[in-house]
Amino acid sequence: MTPSPVVALSGITKRFPGIVANDAIDLEVYAGEIHALLGENGAGKTTLMKILYGLYRPDAGHICIDGQAVMLRSPQDAIRLGLGMAFQQFSLIPSLTVAENIALAVPSSGLRLRLHDIAVRLGTLSQRYGLPIDPWTPVWRLSVGEQQRVELLKLLYRQARILILDEPTSVLTPLEARGFLRAIQAMATSGLAVILISHKMDEVLAVAHRITVLRRGRAVVTVPRSEATAADLARAMIGRDLRPPPTRPLSAPGEVVLSVRDVSVREQPWQPALHGISFDLRQGEILGIAGVAGNGQRELAEVLVGLRRVTAGSMSLQGRDVTHATPREMIRLGVGYIPEDRLGSGLIPQASILDNLLLKEYQHPPFAYGPFLRYRVACAQASRLLSAFQVTAPSLHTLVGTLSGGSQQRLLLAREFSTQPILLIAAHPTRGLDAGAIEHVQHALLEQRQRGCAILLISEDLEELVALCDRIAVMYAGTISGIVSAAGADPATLGALMTGDRALCRNSLAEMPR
Amino acid sequence: MSRWLALEKRPDPLRWMPYLVPMASVVVALLSGAPILYLIGVDPWTAYRAMVWAAFGDLYGVSETLVKAIPLLLLGLGVGVAFRLGFWNIGAEGQFYLGAVGGTWFALSAPDWPALALQPLMLLMGFAAGAVWALVPAALRLYARTNEIITTLMLNYIAMLWIDFLVYGPWKDPQAFGFPFTPPLPQAARLPTLAGSRVHLGLLLGLVAAVILALLLWRTRLGYELRIIGWSSEAARYAGLPIARVTAIVISVSGGLAGLAGLCEVAGVQGRIQHGLSPGYGYTAIIVAWLARLNPWGTIVVSVLLGGLLVGSDMLQIAMGLPIAVAYLFQGLVLFSVLGLEVFVRYRVVWK
Amino acid sequence: MELTLIPLVLAAAVRAGTPIAFAALGELVAERSGVLNLGVEGMMLTGALAGFVVAQQTGQPWVGVLAAAVAGMVLSLVHAVLTISLQANQVVSGLALSIFGSGVTGFWGKRFIGVPADGFTTTAVTGLGGLPIIGPIFFQHDALVYLAYALIPGLWYILYRTYPGLQVRAAGESPASADAMGVEVTAVRYRCVAIGGVAAGLGGAYLSLAYTHIWIENMTAGRGWIAVAMVIFGTWDPWRTALGAYLFGGVQAMQLRLQAAGVAVPTHLLMMTPYLFTIVALVLASRDTTRRRLGAPAALATPYVRE
Fold first, then answer.
1. Which of B5, B238, B241 to mutate to test the interface with A (most CBs of A within 10 A)?
2. Closest Cα in chain C, distance from residue A154 (Å)
3. What CATH number has the domain bearing residue C118?
4. Which CATH code for domain B5-351?
5. Domain spanning A253-334+422-514: CATH 3.40.50.300
6. CA proximity to A150, closest of A107, A186, A180
7. Residue A392 DSSP class
8. What is the pLDDT of residues B50-101, one digit of tens each?
9. Is A56 on the interface with C (CB under 8 A)?
10. Taking a contact as any Cβ pair under 8 Å apart, which residues of chain B between 78 and 107 contact chain C?
11. Which one, out of A79, A222, A257, C302, has a CA that is 20 to 30 A from the CA of C153?
């Protein structure tokens, strides 16, 4: 007799303003199984799991745990039923220690905090599953990989029987990811049910027992691993055959546009330092910055656009020294910036499309006329940009916060590209976008490259970097551990560079930074 | 499946709501104040009818309402523009007092000047004094990262004590039998009034200020910078906006308008500085600005509305013997009502 | 100034600092959970009036204190509903609370101005009260002062060594993560705001029943705002916040002493010193950005809503 599923979702539907995130989805998961939820960004995987975890309430459908129909009103209900979820963005409290974070997650007996007992039990668990951690460190001091371990330990400590892991390896190096996958295999063997959300095919094929593919909010197919092929899965995910990545036309990079020599930045709370960064960037070249998030990429981007002060070293733009340039000067010299948090330093969600588009050029004619702004001219230009970059919006006065992520990114690109920059710093430009928007952004970047713009592309997606970049620099612990040409890049070398393991790259084609 | 009330974000905020909310909140405030009045033995409906009549019922009432509306308008514009920048200027009350002091000092030092020369300079002094008093906390915020809510507020208390020091000490009128007044302003310093009522030049200044601010906000570079910095200092920093310069100008204007309000109250209405020059206009102005949603045009309307509320409260005190604190009671209720009703502009209630 | 005056001034400092300490500690709890409540002034006034009225009617000061606590709590819950459930702007709501508190107490309190009531009298702590120097300074006050003493370590223990305290800190640092871990953020915040209200009410009751035995309109004279400042000054730590409160008390005690001694500075200028002290203290505390950044609850004044 086949055992009954520990989790059974039937007919789950969830709507948000303007979009159906989940459309009548059925899903069954058994104990001891690793069940992968595969799909592109925006397919509805995280939404579905948030419903299972009690964070969202479905508009229709039922949830059964261990054969009993349940009504989940909050994560507490889910936790009580044996569910545990590890999010893509860690749900840890940075200023508290590991032990305190675990204490928070565990229902306690009595008022007093028994941190010592917690630390002891943590030790046992981390030994059993191979997840070493120091319980007394405050979380903000941990590396991303260590924080990931804490997330898992948290679930195990709570004796969760059903683990939901949302894109767990997206922030790990290839080596760390392998160790992580081994750990969850051990958990499944010991009888836990694991639901693994991922968009990485190779991972899924490596560990999953069964795979469900989601596309545009619907469950397209559920197959056992033995019957699944990469091509079938890809077709199910995208709905058509995998389109080859944009071809990068050959081009000969021109003169050096940006020259960075030995730049260092001092460490601050929550912000790693930079040590001795050096590289050159030429016209018509895309230099990728790879590396696990939190190794200084964001700080590097901020230094290059003038938002962060350099404590040593120098930078020059087309021969002009810009080591201590302000952001305004950098903008005037033709530097464009697509920041990591597009609604933070890039776009202003409470402002209209028009106000956002004006942000970089409002001081110059034809928009400015003495102390006044000429709105009619601004509106005409804005309309032109919207149609050129295919941004759909009800009007120029629509607030940017109400647009979709893809539209916002297109708007940001429109603004930055309209000034014909000579240097573009793009940090994670395709993060969180759907497939169509990603394609659009990647093509736009290649177009700018054709035009002769020098681009620095920071990304966690190695495939994207290999497809778009001419050279790839890998950052680790605030330094550049190596620069390789994209043509000869192989995952092993890149992975080694990402963990700072220079010994492994001695026989590779990597350039050592000067 | 059990159901309960929940708030759901509206995809497009209701457009006519912002204009309805100020009116509705006054009504809600009066309604919620009714039980409190009843408990103290006053019939609310009689009281409210009398308030409305006092404020708007006859020409005299309307003119008194306008007299009260003038400082609220100037202060409300000043507070509103600072709030737009993200600077919580709770110090309008203190800036009001400093403006009164600055302008009065000038008028008392130059008693023989003709009105045409004296008044513009006096107004300028009032504006400047209020601006300086506001720039201190602004500088502290910019360069010492000090919370401006507390600093502006502390300066209010200091300003009030400063006034008391002056009227009990160096500026005490020798002919006032020991009462805490300054000597009266010279006739040339008294602002012109309208047709025998007490409505004075300040009204014109307020209306002009509203027009200028509206123009500034939506037609100039400075206004654009102001709005951007108010929404997102991060984006403003990246775009290289001159945050310090904009802050200095905007806060000067904010404090200056408040100072102007103070001076106008002295030169237009009371004729001299005394203890308790302001019945809390600076705090009422915060309510005015919030109800008007920081919009200059709205501020004109709301300042008249709240001026009427003040006149009505005065009448309750004089005719019915209620404590003057009743004015604050209603103002607090109005602000609560606004905050509560505002929710419905952005959200709607649904069964979930 | 004679040397024997110093202990007297210090004892006066303790008394003057007590209402601030109560209010500041309460506000600290609320802010630690992520809610900024600027209505402390209004809550203190309400507490002062409620405490005075009830004590006067019943003849029992402790019943008055209870009433004060309840009054402060009720008012704080208005702020809680507006800011936590209805997501209103926390700064403006707090201001509204202060304005309303001033109005409602001025309105209702008119009849009680000049009316006498029994309040708290000095009760020396047995044994400790007799110690040389330290005794008169710390242990010869009324019961409420001792209550404030107990509150400081009590709050520290609860915040850092108990489970509810951990939940409070989590809700204030990262409500989304706390929610995902099963912490009922909304309930925690409501409770903390209520505690803030109770404490502010107690601070007000101290003013009308112990520090003085009368009611005057607006008798707090800005102490509520100073309490908020002291929380920042103390970087959200109970010990440092209490220190700030008593330091303020010291400034005020000095000012009163100098006034009484007939120093050649005009009264009104002397009265400015406490407010100037607050500004200076705040500037000094805010300069050390690292300490402040590590101290301030990261989610302070940002509402949290689960989708």
1. B238
2. 9
3. 1.10.3470
4. 1.10.3470
5. yes
6. A180
7. -
8. 899 999 999 899 999 999 999 999 999 999 999 999 999 999 999 999 999 9
9. yes
10. 88, 90
11. C302
